[in-house]
């Protein structure tokens, strides 16, 4: 049972990612524009074979999932059909979360 103010600890497994690069280079990912209206672009500098970009609404429902390619280094998503609000953008590889960022849609 968790203590009232305890912070849970999680072990993260990372495959095919240079952990040193991710830790020492916090600018490996860039999301713009944010806030966004019609489209949002994720740029990345890591090798992300087998990785996915996922967008979740605040209820935790996955509303978008897109495969990422190391060759492209950038992906643009059309978001004009999403209601205005706050979302979580998550990059995963082999079920490990590599990056997450708040996305605001106007």
TrEMBL record:
<dbReference type="Pfam" id="PF18962">
    <property type="entry name" value="Por_Secre_tail"/>
</dbReference>
<dbReference type="InterPro" id="IPR026444">
    <property type="entry name" value="Secre_tail"/>
</dbReference>
<feature type="domain" description="Secretion system C-terminal sorting">
    <location>
        <begin position="31"/>
        <end position="105"/>
    </location>
</feature>
<keyword id="KW-0732">Signal</keyword>
<protein>
    <submittedName>
        <fullName>T9SS type A sorting domain-containing protein</fullName>
    </submittedName>
</protein>
